[in-house]
């Protein structure tokens, strides 16, 4: 009944078809990771009915290696990592343009068939994907289709504000602590600046580079993607905001936008001050900005659901403070080469510990400089 096609290049009709669905996000549009490089390339899966109409879409990124964030240990293990880490990933999908449950299941079965072909053709170690939290028709029968074909399941949550509510009502749902921090940031004369020039975008990337060092990572070229980011900014797909104190940039955030959905990437900080309220002010400022610019949803992003989510120091606890509704969604994983996958996980756990060690050293240097 349905067929599929897999492409490495598509035209503007891809995005136009996405807009037929209310749950299509930035992570499926052409502009998301659209470049072909030695690290990754995109695949576009279209599901067609008997009249060749597009009734579902899935964008998968094939990752050949991970060298954007690098370090000496990673470089020395590059050839081994490249062999072990070839994988595919999708975000917020699949996008199915049907509200008929029976039809959706058949479409999903066709998508899974296409995924199997991709795994074989590109010799993937594993394929993983995140089901869209915006698709409210995802149910047990939907998930069971993946489980029937060897996928495993993890539970994730995210926090989303429905922006049709008045801003005053949204503010009331923000926790008392977060509201107090926003007001404290203003009293400390922290200001927010929306990036509007190419040089300001450079400043954002320089701060991102500094933030990466606090995580023990090294970005091989901070300005590598600046032309693409600038193009996306001018198209209204990406926006950047800087928090400044005493004319110094202390924090920044990137908001990606598509289909009236604003999605907040994590806040990056210089860690130059022991108490940095820049990120807190940025969070509320971008909520106000999304409201003023007519967005339908503001997604704080989320993470894996665990018993530790109510820990005051957890990232999810921070995101929960902003009054968004808790949306449950799922991470799916299909392992094709188990030995390679296990080795890959062990190797990257080793690299993570090494990065954490480097991060502690870098933060100690920052603290010493700040104390002086």
Describe the structure in your own words.
There is one protein chain. The chain contains 12 helices and 16 strands. It has helices at 13-18, 72-76, 78-84, 101-121, 140-147, 167-173, 176-187, 198-214, 226-234, 278-292, 315-320, 338-371, and strands at residues 3-7, 40-48, 54-63, 69-70, 87-90, 95-96, 126-130, 152-162, 191-194, 218-219, 238-245, 248-258, 261-264, 268-269, 297-304, 325-335. Helix 4 (101-121) runs parallel beside helix 5 (140-147). The protein is globular.
Largest sheet: number of strands, sense, barrel closure: 14 strands, mixed
The secondary-structure element order is EHEEEHHEEHEHEHHEHEHEEEEHEHEH
Tell me the helix content.
25-40%
Q: Which consecutive residue ranges, at least 5 long each, have pLDDT under 50?
A: 362-372
Strand content: 25-35%
Taken from the alpha-carbon principal axes, the silhouette is: globular
Mean pLDDT, as a whole number? 87
Structural class: alpha+beta
Number of strands: 16
The radius of gyration computed from the alpha-carbon positions, rounded to a whole number of angstroms, is 21 Å
User: Helical stretch count?
Assistant: 12
Distance between the termini: 71 Å
């Amino acid at each position: 009944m349905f067929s599929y096609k897999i492409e490495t290049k598509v035209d503007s009709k891809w995005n136009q078809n996405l807009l037929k669905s209310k749950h299509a996000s930035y992570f499926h549009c052409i502009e998301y990771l659209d470049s072909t490089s030695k690290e990754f390339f995109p695949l576009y899966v279209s599901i067609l009915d008997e009249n060749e109409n597009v009734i579902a879409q899935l964008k998968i990124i094939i990752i050949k290696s991970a060298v954007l964030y690098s370090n000496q240990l990673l470089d020395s293990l590059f050839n081994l990592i490249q062999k072990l880490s070839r994988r595919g990933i999708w975000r917020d999908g699949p996008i199915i343009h049907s509200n008929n449950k029976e039809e959706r299941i058949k479409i999903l079965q066709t998508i899974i068939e296409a995924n199997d072909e991709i795994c074989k053709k590109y010799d993937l170690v594993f394929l993983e994907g995140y089901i869209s939290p915006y698709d409210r028709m995802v149910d047990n029968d939907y998930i069971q289709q993946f489980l029937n074909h060897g996928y495993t399941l993890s539970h994730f949550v995210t926090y989303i504000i429905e922006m049709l509510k008045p801003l005053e009502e949204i503010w009331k749902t923000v926790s008392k602590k977060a509201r107090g921090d926003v007001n404290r940031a203003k009293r400390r004369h922290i200001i927010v600046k929306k990036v509007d020039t190419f040089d300001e975008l450079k400043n954002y990337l320089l701060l991102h580079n500094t933030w990466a060092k606090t995580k023990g990572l090294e970005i091989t070229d901070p300005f590598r993607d600046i032309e693409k980011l600038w193009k996306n900014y001018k198209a209204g797909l990406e926006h950047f905001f800087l928090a400044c104190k005493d004319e110094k940039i202390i924090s920044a955030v990137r908001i990606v936008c598509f289909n009236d959905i604003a999605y907040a990437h994590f806040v990056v900080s210089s860690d130059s001050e022991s108490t940095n309220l820049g990120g807190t002010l940025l969070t509320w400022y971008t909520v106000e900005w999304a409201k003023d610019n007519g967005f339908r949803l503001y997604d704080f992003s989320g993470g894996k659901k665990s018993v530790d989510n109510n820990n005051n120091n957890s990232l999810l606890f921070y995101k929960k403070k902003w009054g968004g509704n808790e949306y449950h969604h799922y991470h799916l994983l299909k392992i094709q080469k188990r030995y390679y996958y296990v080795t890959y996980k062990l190797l990257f756990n080793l690299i993570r510990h090494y990065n954490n060690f480097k991060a502690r050293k870098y933060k100690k240097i920052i603290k010493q400089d700040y104390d002086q």
